[in-house]
Specification:
The chain is mostly helical. Helix content is 66%, strand content 0%.
Length: 95
């Protein structure tokens, strides 16, 4: 291979790779998300297990479900910031 043929081969290779990557991203975008449960029966069984494991009290149940949802990232974590006691500047200077 001479210099001209090698350059042509490299450009052809680059175009082929770009085309492949473009097609690959299109395939991945159009792909439907995987189904978590194969049947409605297995989904219902999982729901029943979770409901039986949760506390009977509705308030406690709500707190547990919210905590799990935050852990999984379904709900944004709370932005509550603790307020510390502010000391006067004179006290800080004296210490």
């Amino acid at each position: 291979l001479n210099v001209v043929e090698l350059a042509a081969l490299r450009t052809k290779n680059n175009l082929r790779q770009k085309k492949y990557l473009n097609n690959k991203t299109k395939r991945l975008i159009n792909k439907p998300p995987p189904v978590a449960f194969k049947s409605r029966q297995s989904f219902g069984k999982a729901i029943k297990k979770v409901n039986s494991a949760l506390p009977k009290c509705s308030g406690k149940k709500k707190v547990v479900v919210q905590h799990i949802a935050k852990k999984l990232g379904l709900i944004a974590p709370s932005t509550h910031e603790r307020v510390a006691a502010q000391h006067p500047e004179k006290l800080n200077e004296a210490v």
